[in-house]
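Minutes, project check-in

Agenda point 3 was the complex the collaborators sent over. CS summarized: two entities, 400 residues total, and the question is how they sit relative to each other. Sequences were read into the notes so everyone works from the same version.
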Amino acid sequence: MIEPITGRYAQMRLDGRAHRIYFEEAGQGIPLLCLHTAGSDGRQYRAVLNDGRITKDYRVIAFDMPWHGKSSPPEGWQREDYRLTIDAYTSMIMTIARELALDRPVVMGCSIGGRVVLNLALKHARELRALIGLQSAAYVERYYDAGWMDHAEVHGGRACGGLAYGLMSPVSPEEHKWETVWHYMQGGPGVFTGDLHFYQGAEGDIRERIGAIDTKLCPLYMLTGEYDYSASPRDTQAAAERIPGARVTIMKGLGHFPMSENPAAFLSYLRPVLDEIKNSVPGT
Amino acid sequence: MFERLPEVVNGNPAIVRWGRHMNATFMLEAGEAQYLVHVGSGKIEAVEKGPFVMRSWTFAIRARRECWDEFLRKTPQPGWHDLFALLRRGDVKLEGDQRLLWAYLLYIKLALQALR
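CS then shared the predicted structure for the full assembly.
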């Protein structure tokens, strides 16, 4: 059985440097751009890309961020520490949307992606159709030292996998939990840690800014798995309280990687959101 | 509380393989009760119950007894299901050799959850 997903590469400049970006897509219709979590890649969205009920109305696209999956780091990477910043991440997404000629896409992101959709809501609401934050929160404190996952005397793949494993729900299917762990184990040295530079602590802290989000310009949906302790339901609700019109759903039995750790349960939450977006936008 | 570790880990190659290169002793603490867990090539060679006097260990995982009770439920509640979930709550202390703990994090998690 050959899946309906196709993968291609696109060359573009991001943050002033040449990049070769891998993306997968399936379906036709409203563009739905999907953002993977820190230290992983677009395979997390395999079930969304394979869901015919979604792809009959949506062109689903999942790209691998630079340094992740099949997107290489830029030339000269061996001389630097990778550190994701909120500005670079935000402009990366908008550049990719432009390079792929996406017309007012829906953007859905998880974890770091769930954080950055809040910044997209602040900065680019008029260019986007709707935003979906999975495991979306405005801040998380630095409650562990992510530097250990970028250490020559610790196997990065095993450590990253060990960390990701616990972020999932104890009731998610083993098959999909371990698939999710595998993606983490394949990350390059220091990449997960570099993403967490944005996610933990000051760099990505947008608590004081999100009150300016206008959900009338661009609807914002926030879906959070109840077993997530990194972006917990409480964290999502705290963010939503500052954003008039944000729509929160707490997903029972799901953890930090809903689309990847339990695809069937996640799709049952996602489809109604996508139906609502589709039906609320005339002429699409 | 942790006495069953050898029984639940050693017969399970899917856990042992993640600790295959671990040869170390670590401490588990549940309130006042202390345990020293001796690991050899991924198998739990012994679990000693304290109190101890001037014993060495590599890393220690310390939490209240009630905290472990929640963690070890067959299906734990959200926020109680993982060592790092407890860490974010401020309900566990990870002390000593952090490098070794990170090197075997997946093994330690799988071993502890096997007690559920």
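Noted in discussion: The first strand of chain A starts at residue 6 and ends at 14.
Follow-up: revisit at the next meeting once the mutant set is ready.
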